[in-house]
Fold this sequence. Notes:
By secondary structure, the protein is of the alpha/beta class. The chain has helices spanning about 20-35, 40-55, 110-125, 130-135, 140-150, and strands at about 10-15, 60, 65, 70, 80-90, 100-105.
Amino acid sequence: xxxxxxxxxxxxxxxxxxxxxxxxxxxxxxxxxxxxxxxxxxxxxxxxxxxxxxxxxxxxxxxxxxxxxxxxxxxxxxxxxxxxxxxxxxxxxxxxxxxxxxxxxxxxxxxxxxxxxxxxxxxxxxxxxxxxxxxxxxxxxxxxxxxxxxxxxxx
Length: 155
């Protein structure tokens, strides 16, 4: 799967000013709901993301979080990405503030696809050089291009 299959340039924002984890999730939810071909409602999206966060933080370390959830009205996986102006506390295991967030929504019945996408995202964001490029880029289209063109490094 290519990241460009689930994200579009209008769901990528750089230098977003969010003051808390909840506010960042609300911003992502608005992006996902307003730029979706599905009949998603922003409040349902944020409720799904917050419900998942109550199970345990989606902060994976290195200043990155991958908030994700399931929604009834989605017929395929969709995503949004924000680069925050200042990191926010996300209860990540490494206690680092999060400034890179990749939100993922999948259909309510999705299982295998959901896990495959999360594994790919975890691998992508474990790449130190890639994270540095995302942080150094101050243009949403350029960030979209980085996300879309990321390739697994040969071992």
